[in-house]
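Pinned message: reference record for Antitermination protein BlgG
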Amino acid sequence: MKCEILKIMNNNVIWVQDDKNKAETVLIGKGIGFGVKPGQQVDIPQEAIDKVFITYDQKTMKDYIALAESIDSNIMEVCTEIIIYAEEKLGKLSHRVYPVLTDHIAFAIERLKSQMVIQNPFLMEIKGIYQDEFEIGLRAQSMILKKIGIDITEDEVGFIALHLNAARENKEVKEIMKNTRLIKTVIDNIEAALDYKVDMDSFTYQRLVSHIKGSIERARLGQTIKNPLLESIKVEFANAYIIAAKIRTTVERELSIKISDDEVGYMAIHIARISNKAEL
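Predicted structure (tokens):
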């Protein structure tokens, strides 16, 4: 890409003007800003840009530039490195993750400098539901400590994981937070009904959560699945089906969606597996 360097935000972020269409663009990539100067005409290899993205929409670009001009350059740089690392592990993320996550981390660092610690009420659920994102959050914790000298808390790691999942699914963080809160309620209800504490590290838990998330997403998209064993499940796993039906009521009320009997039947199978473990 042939362009003029307008501003170097850090070694990984530059603000340029495209020679071809004269559009101003923010480019992000590993080392993309190293060794260049404002006013310089450069030809940046396409592969150096494609690791992240080429252009922002105008609002996102303006938000990101304003943010870059208002926070410490070291914070800006480490946030960029965190997101690049996250994309290497998770694949392409929504471009909104750059201003949104950077702003969150910058604010978190300022809070911690002022001894203001915020608890994450969904930390255990985040660890269980968003394992990949949480692992990246732990890596971010290490990167921030090395670059900034601030050791962010595990609660903050959890919040970073939520932002990464939102970017991964191209959704708002508040929607991911709402779903996480709902899944916590569902698991709490199952545990209360069975008088059994579910192991969040277990494969059984992961499959249950995966099905709940899938059911919600299918209901939102108007998709249906067929459960050929539904009538047998109602008989063989009667108690589990009753619990699953109550959960359906909770989910439908909270999200204003409709969950089919077929979905309830599959959920009952997962609950029955947990029930069997509880009886051992």
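Pinned by admin. Summary line: The CA atoms of residues 186 and 250 lie 8 Å apart.
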